[in-house]
Amino acid sequence: MKRTEAILLFIFSLAGMEAMSARDYSLASPDGNVSVTVNVSDSLSFSVRYGDEQILDLSRIALDVKGQDRAFGDRPVIRKASRTSVDRTLEAVVPTKFREVRDCFNELRLSFRGGWSVVFRAYDNGVAYRFETSLGDGRIYVRDETACYNFSDDCTAYWANEKNPDFISHCEASFQPVKLSGIEKEKYSYLPVSMLTAGGTRVVVTETDLLDYPNLFLFGGRGASLEAELPHVILETEMRTDRDVNVLRKADYIAETRATRTFPWRIFTLGDDKSLLENTLPWQLATPEYSDDTAWIRPGKISWEWWCMLNVYGVDFKAGVNTQTYKYYIDFAARTGLEYILMDEGWSASTMDIMNPKPGLDLHELIRYGNEKGVGIVLWTLWTPMMKDMEKILDTYRDWGIKGIKIDFMQRTDQPMVNFYEDVARECFERHLIVDFHGSFKPAGLQRKYPNVMSYEGVYGMEHDKCSSDISPEHDLVLPFTRMVAGPMDYTPGATINATKEDFAIRWNHPMSQGTRAHQAAIFIAFESPVQMLCDSPSNYYREPEFTHFIASVPTVWDETVAIEAKAGDYLLIARRSGDTWYVAGLNDWTRRELALPLDFLGDGEYTAEIFKDGVNADSWAEDYKCETAVVSSGDILPVVMANGGGWAAIIRPSVK
Fold first, then answer.
1. Could you tell me which residues come within 8 angstroms of residue 2 by beta carbon, excluding any fewer than 6 positions away?
2. Percent of the chain scoring above 70 in pLDDT
3. pLDDT, tens only, 138-155
4. Distance in angstroms (rounded) separating the CA atoms of residues 538 and 73
5. What are the backbone dihedrals phi and psi of residue 428, each rounded to the nearest 5 degrees, phi first?
6. According to the model, what pLDDT value does residue 546 have?
7. 601 burial class (0-12, 13-18, 19+ CB within 10 angstroms)?
8. Over 80: is that where the pLDDT of 14 sits?
9. Is the predicted pLDDT of residue 8 greater than 80, yes or no?
10. I need a labelling partner for 410 at 20 to 30 A (CA). Which of 35, 52, 263, 437 fits?
11. Which of 16-25, 290-299, 442-451 bottoms out in mean pLDDT, i.e. has the lowest?
12. Keyword annotations for this protein (predicted)?
């Protein structure tokens, strides 16, 4: 045999050995209803079934690292397959759904030649996977990550419809339903992407444990397939304003990172609309708490002055950014039991000078006065000065006695900005400061690692009532099945001026909300945020004592959540428990409807229900509501009647004997 022929035969033999190693690996959820098939052949791909329904056909995934002879996932050679089953209970420091979370899954770990692995987990309510690398102690450059999700059905997706080559976004979409096949090729969506299959399964794609890595975005225009893209590292920018940047130069990679690490989890939640309200997979899969020094973390409600433009009245001082007005806010918070007040943009000498208050504003007196009243002060900050001098600024806030920050207008979604979020969370944690990320991308697990991270915006919320008519009850009924799946959202409810669709008017200084007063009350229970804003003026709240008392009585963290009934975009009915008291919320779109509320989640004995519901004329006068009480028990079923754009809320406490 000639030498050339021998070499070719050897090469073909190696190829044949790799081909013979091509095989499928199966993984099922603990209840057997969710199944994953991982195919290792010329490429790495996986498929997903849920019950009798095929959700994903074979979908290719890969990780492209500079210096490797091929991408991880391209002609992979498997070294080892191992399986693990886990059934444990996790306890949340700041529980947005459950204080104790059952974490029960089966795991498949596939290790490949070249120092990398992929891990799949199958839960009863979803599937997750991620890459891992073991490439020594150095650094690597990740050029790209491939994910082409081939859905078996032309699902209807809630799509963000954004378009920016640098993925600059505040992630504030009015989600529009569209068939996957109808998505424009150049329009992307940030995560979560929520879809409904023809078989009625609600699938939500999102990510968690997003650390030292960019956000993932999905593109359509490929039939029923969605393809991932991730922003490249931004190397050079120029400031267009105090908060906006023009991107001048980008790297040819998406991440420069540790050579040995785990990468973010890609999650597919599975179930129906009702079960989605109880799903906690993004939290379960996130990195555990950074520290057990968490006793100081204080969730709660917070008054907000920007929405109503500091318009207080019936007072003997001129309202505005001044000491007297903020003392008025502190008095209101103390009187109604709110934990914090927010001093939003305008309190500081300038947006770039956030270590000095506006001249004439006695911030130290306000901090002293707030401490005397048991009310903490949270300060608005801009990301640009914070990025330049974070430690000095945060040291100053800590030394002043500030309790937290609301940091705003980040916009970028690349790896350096993700790292900036973690820097803020960690440095604030070390100084016992809570954090609200505004002008931000969605939560992606950081709030578990650093439980002082209370909330994120990344939502088209009620602040936009001041400038658009998009924040409707229908929009409100989309958010729990899209954005809220990722984690807490700073939607900022609490309007006292409420309007029907016909009566709504855009007003900047005296804004109103769409939908009924009871709709606003129910949002405080239905929407998750460990620091929940009260957006309206204290003067308006003083004129509405029943409403104010009700929303001020609602906690912001929960021991247990029970979803009762739900249909995305139309309605929901949900119960949450704090201690021995239950809080129930019904939210409705513009169609009047009646639901049934079985009280079988209650314990034994009698309870007293304090009910806040639409009045008989709420269809035409959105501020019409009725408060009533009823004695109930676990065998009862309550009617939940909701007007057009309406709501229903109840606080159910054990009866005093």
1. none
2. 97
3. 999 999 999 999 999 999
4. 58
5. -70, -40
6. 98
7. middle
8. no
9. no
10. 263
11. 16-25
12. Calcium, Glycosidase, Hydrolase
Closest CA to 191 of 170, 164, 171: 171
- DSSP per-residue string spanning 533-555: EE-S-HHHHHH-HHHHHHHHTS-
User: Would the pLDDT of 2 be above 70?
Assistant: no
Strand 340-343 relative to strand 300-303, pairing: parallel
Q: How far is CA 252 from CA 109, 214, 215, 376, in A?
A: 30, 14, 16, 45
What span, in angstroms and rounded, lies between the C-alpha atoms of 250 and 651?
Answer: 53
* SS3 readout for 137-201: EEEEEEEEEEEEEEECCCCEEEECCECCCCCCCCCCCCCEEEEHHHCCCCCEEECCEEEECCCCC
The closest of 414, 441, 125 to 281, measured between CA atoms, is: 125
Closest to 366 (Cα-Cα) out of 399, 341, 346, 392: 341
Tokens, residue 370: 């707030």
Please give the pLDDT value at position 99: 98
Instruction: Convert the pLDDT of each residue in 266-285 to its tens digit.
Output: 999 999 999 999 999 999 99
Spatial separation of the C-alpha atoms in residues 97 and 376, rounded to whole Å:
25
| Eight-state DSSP code of residue 371 | H
User: Which residues are part of the catalytic machinery?
Assistant: 408, 463
Segment (H or E) for 430:
helix 415-430
Smallest CA-to-CA distance from 71 within 118, 36, 27 is with 118
> For the whole model, what pTM was predicted?
0.95
Cα angle: 447, vertex 461, 165; to 5 degrees: 80
Structure-token match 């090469």, residue found = 11
Instruction: Give the orientation angle of helix 363-373 with respect to helix 390-400, to 10 degrees.
Output: 50
- How remote is the C-alpha of 525 from its chain's centroid? 16
Task: Mark 150-172 as b/e (b = at least 16 C-beta within 10 Å).
Answer: bbbbebbbbbbebeeebbbbbbb
pLDDT band at residue 415, thresholds of 50, 70 and 90? very high
The residue assigned the tokens 């999650």 is: 267
- Among 185, 190, 198, 119, CA closest to 151: 198
The C-alpha angle with vertex 504 and arms to 503 and 510, in degrees rounded to 5, equals 120
Q: Could you write out the DSSP letters of every residue in 10-28? A: HHHHHHHHHHHT-EEEEEE
Report in angstroms the alpha-carbon separations of 361 from 227, 242, 343, 358, 373: 51, 22, 11, 6, 19
pLDDT value at 13 more than 90: no
Q: Which residue has the tokens 């658009």?
A: 468
Whole-angstrom distance, CA of residue 38 vs CA of residue 44: 7
